[in-house]
Amino acid sequence: MTINSTSLTVxxxxxxxxxxxxxxxxxxxxxxxxxxxIAGLVILVLFGLLAIIGRWIAPxxxxxxxxxxxxxxxxxxxxxxxxxxxxxxxxxxLPPSAAHWLGTTxxxxxxxxxxxxxxxxxxxxxxxxxxxxxxxxxxxxxxAGYLGGxxxxxxxxxxxxxxxxxxxxLLIVLADYVPSAGSSVVLVASIIAVTTxxxxxxxxxxxxxxxxxxxxxxxxxVMGEGRLRxxxxxxxxxxxxIVAASFLFTALSAIGAYVAIAFLGLAGSxxxxxPGLWNWGEMLREGFAxxxxxxxxxxxWAPPGLCIALLGTGLALLNFxxxxxxxPRLRTAGLSRKTARKAGIGTRPKLGMTxxxxxxxxxxxxxxxxxxxxxxxxxxxPVLEIRGLSVDYGYxxxxxxxxxxxxxxxxxxxxxxxxxxxxxxxxxxxLAAIRLLRAPxxxxxxxxxFHSKPISGDGPAGTIxxxxxxxxxxxxxxxxxIAVVLQSSLNALNPVITIGAQFDDLLRVHRPALxxxxxxxxxxxxxxxxxxxxxxxxSYPHELSGGMRxxxxxxxxIALEPQVMILDEPTTALDVVxxxxxxxxxxxxxxxxxxxxxxxxxxxxxxVELADEIAVMYAGRLMERAxxxxxxxxxxxxxxxxxxxxxxxxxxxxxxxEGLKGSPPDMRDLPPGCxxxxxxxxxxxxxxxxxxxxxxxxGSPREVACWLHREGTTVPPELAQPEPASMRxxxxxxVGQAGGT
Amino acid sequence: xxxxxxxxxxxxxxxxxxxxxRGLTKSFxxxxxxxxxxxxxxxxxxxxxxxxxxAGRVTALVGESGAGKTTVARxxxxxxxxxxxxxxxxxxxxxxxxxxxxxxQVQMVFQDPFASLNPVHRVGHNLVRPLQIHHIADGxxxxxxxxxxxxxxxxPPDxxxxKFPHELSGGQRxxxxxxxxxxxxxxxLIADEPVSMLDVSIRLGVLNLLADxxxxxxxxxxxxxxxxxxxxxxxxxxxxxxxxxxxxAAPSVSLxxxxxxxxxxxxxxxxxxPDRVEAPALAGRGAPPSLLAPPSGxxxxxxxxxxxxxxxxQVPPRVAVAADHSAACWLHVDPNNRRITVNGSVAPARDSxxxxxxxx
Lengths: 741, 360
Ligand SMILES: Nc1ncnc2c1ncn2[C@@H]1O[C@H](COP(=O)(O)OP(=O)(O)OP(=O)(O)O)[C@@H](O)[C@H]1O
Ligand SMILES: Nc1ncnc2c1ncn2[C@@H]1O[C@H](COP(=O)(O)OP(=O)(O)OP(=O)(O)O)[C@@H](O)[C@H]1O
Ligand code: SF4
Ligand code: SF4
Ligand SMILES: [Mg+2]
Ligand SMILES: [Mg+2]
Known about the structure:
The structure holds 2 protein chains of 2 kinds.
Chain A: H1 25-30, H2 35-57, E1 73-75, E2 89-91, H3 111-147, H4 149-164, H5 167-177, H6 185-212, H7 215-223, H8 227-263, H9 280-289, H10 298-326, H11 337-342, H12 370-376, E3 382-393, E4 400-411, E5 415-420, H13 426-433, E6 441-452, E7 462-465, H14 471-477, E8 482-486, H15 499-510, H16 516-529, H17 546-558, E9 564-568, H18 576-593, E10 596-600, H19 604-610, E11 613-618, E12 621-627, H20 628-633, H21 638-644, E13 695-696, E14 703-704, H22 734-740
Parallel strand pairs in A: 5-10, 5-11, 8-9, 9-10
Antiparallel strand pairs in A: 1-2, 3-4, 3-6, 6-7, 11-12, 12-14, 13-14
Helix pairs in contact in A: 2-3, 2-10, 3-4, 3-6, 3-8, 3-10, 4-6, 5-6, 6-8, 7-8, 8-9, 8-10, 9-10, 15-16, 16-17, 17-18
Chain B: E1 17-31, E2 40-54, E3 58-62, H1 69-76, E4 84-89, E5 92-93, H2 100-103, E6 106-109, H3 123-133, H4 141-151, H5 157-161, H6 170-183, E7 188-192, H7 200-217, E8 220-225, H8 228-234, E9 237-242, E10 245-251, H9 252-257, H10 262-270, H11 309-313, E11 318-322, E12 325-328, H12 352-359
Parallel strand pairs in B: 3-8, 3-9, 6-7, 7-8
Antiparallel strand pairs in B: 1-2, 1-4, 4-5, 9-10, 10-12, 11-12
Helix pairs in contact in B: 3-4, 3-6, 4-6
Bound molecules: adenosine-5'-triphosphate (2 copies), iron/sulfur cluster (SF4) (2 copies) and magnesium ion (MG) (2 copies).
């Protein structure tokens, strides 16, 4: 894998997992809205109607010959009086007329009436075959999948045997073997069903297998629920979308099969005894057998051909719609171009480029000057400055304001912690700042400045405006100057290349001066830095544990000595011991290399130990920012206070703790005023209407967005604890200088 | 027991073991590779684990990922059958198989509330079914369901009965799952990481609910977790597992304050602790072993800073290091071993590095 910035683009998951196979009422209702589904449904309903009422609206019997016109024959060339051969005649079909809407066949039969009869038989056979096949496949697949073990092996064997036999030849043999089959819809449908059920059965078995081990099935078992009920009530309803999709698929292939055998003349002719059924395949066969194409009698062969194509398209469209519904990944992630254009935003979806709204991102109320901001805390110079940043998902009314007016300054050598509940916008804020989010994410306001002073390599120096930077500029910065490690990066390593080769790719691109041996040595040294043995360069990612993969990712992130590391929950998936080891390694590296770190996590107790400064987010806004020790010992924000009391202490007497009441806010429907007010125990009347802004607390290097800390209110004692006397001796000041000079 | 009145004081009534597992052992056969003929190897998931759940007590089962916690929980709930070991219900051997009578006594709550409720069924269905299966609440099912929802603090019940799982927040879903477990009026509730999928801000609510059920309804609760701080908060007793084996068991405060086993000490050192000033020293870095071929003797020995020769070959016995406090470690066996201090915790061994050098 060539690690470049674009391969890192990750859309953060929407809060709360969405199980793939969920039969949601709202989603079902949404299903018919897709144009594909509507078109498919219209076609299907049309044919269904024709199949039902065809019998009554057909003007003639499909077999009846029109005696009146039968006489119009054409002399076959080379026959007749002059040639000595007895005269022989082509029957001449009639073109469409008022009497025969679709003309006649050579036998003077009405094509329209034949078509109606054929539609009925074809549609009925298709649906019936699909129904039989679906019942068979559900029986076999679900039973095999649920029972497992020997029953599964036996049933799967049967299915596999059917799968191994080529369908059409079997069909031909069967159709030939049962000559009277063509006269009975049920027989034809059964024969077709027998040849098509196995495929679906396999899909259903696989799905059932995965459902069987789901917790909710296990829960029913623990409850003492019977087997049959579990299958019928717990498992089957979850398979409905798949069963529906496979029903449509089978109907489509059944119609294809029916047409095929009829075309081959195996479904019995309507004029033989017992008479076969009129169907599209039979119509085509007669047409082709009697020179309909060469004779240019399109009205004979085109209608059944078109019907096949149309019904096939309808079923396929519907199937596609259901597929999309089952597998949300197929649904387009972005919003329609039209909406975007209406909103006046140019959003050619570019990989790894978060779009920025056209309207100038200046004049944000809370943008402070750099000088003013650094007065708050002038320990080290800023390296990444985020000013008034707002990020939406989607446009107009549908927009989710995931990040609103956030200010954040990351200083050289500093660990800045970003804490908050799930869905509060932490990932969005960090990734938008370096424009790694894909549409529908949109930066609607703000400014992001990157003050670059490369530690090594030939990256750009000077201040770069991230929101107006070009693709090339961003590419030059990302990874080599600003590196990102995401929680999902556990799986971000290329599985088919060794770790060593991935390091090599990275260094070859960004440090072309290094020779191959030097690259290898450097890769080994990097692994050593994160506590891994250099031998591991020869390993494939799957040979490493989760902890080692995360270490390898961190080693890659520091490979180019970036100035900024963005770590989004880098250790949440790991064990505490591994997590601790990796964090210690990381801090050691920070002291050595001097990069600044933006550390995102929901685990405030971890941040207090790790970070120099902590920013707390709630519902898309930054609510409190303070040095870690101050925040821990003397929180000023009710939310921070409550959050700190969500982590039971490891020492001292055990006391009952309350945690936070209520549930995390719905970002689509935020409460007015301070978004925390429904859960805040000290909420004031004005909290319900006015949004508090982040403002400095008099004299201290900290800021809070809360009405309690404005003039005229008494601050509850819990939120007025004195600042801890001695700030913990944090990293030596030299760190900042090391990075700064 | 020196429990400083925990979230809520434990009862003075005599402690009864409701469910007890003795010497539980379980291994799984897994295929190596995907082909039909792939070799099957054995995962020694749980070995010789004994746990005891008492009425009105919470026992926490703590360990890293893959330590075998879920397997023990599933063994106790009889979802899977043990290879060896016995289960005792009220002191009598538990009936074979998984009869409904067992389900009526022992219920389980799963880790992921997003997966443990069937997405196609309403809350009501989840609560009505157990009542129907076990013929509880003769006649007045609606009232019983409403009562269940009230017990897990989903109020008012009417607004929740008709909801689908996706209409509920994570904490609410876990409450429904707990209510489902409570519906059959069990005496044992096995909760497998009930809060680890929930947002930090709502975890305490669920933990407090469990504490409440323990105190009000005298439930015996097994709380499976990897978060030792929450175990200390909720549980009366903590049992620590490492690589499928029990390593230490003690009342929760004495275990976290005076850990006796080197692995427990490592776990505690690694746990996030905002009160800590210095970065903790981790004695015993590295990762848990593969359970396909677990280390002989003490499974912690490849990482243990105090490893001795005997540890490599002999499985350490469980020894009492204090009242109610046992650890499976050779350090605590030899009474002449100087490294055992009075209160039962292992003093940082001065000679540990020397010792390791000698053994190389
Ligand atoms: N592609 C998207 N489309 C619409 N909304 C989105 C999208 N991605 C994220 N969101 C919403 O934006 C909000 C912020 O998401 P974000 O991922 O930044 O949260 P977070 O604080 O990182 O949470 P977590 O701790 O769960 O990672 C959430 O409410 C989420 O539902
Ligand atoms: N059904 C199974 N088949 C094969 N191996 C299994 C099975 N169930 C568990 N294991 C293995 O047994 C070991 C213990 O697993 P278990 O799920 O009990 O661990 P755990 O302590 O619950 O971990 P976690 O914290 O990740 O849930 C693991 O190595 C796991 O891979
Ligand atoms: S602004 Fe009001 S509601 Fe918001 S945190 Fe402060 S006191 Fe609570
Ligand atoms: S038995 Fe030996 S190896 Fe195992 S924890 Fe005790 S001292 Fe360490
Ligand atoms: Mg996130
Ligand atoms: Mg588990």
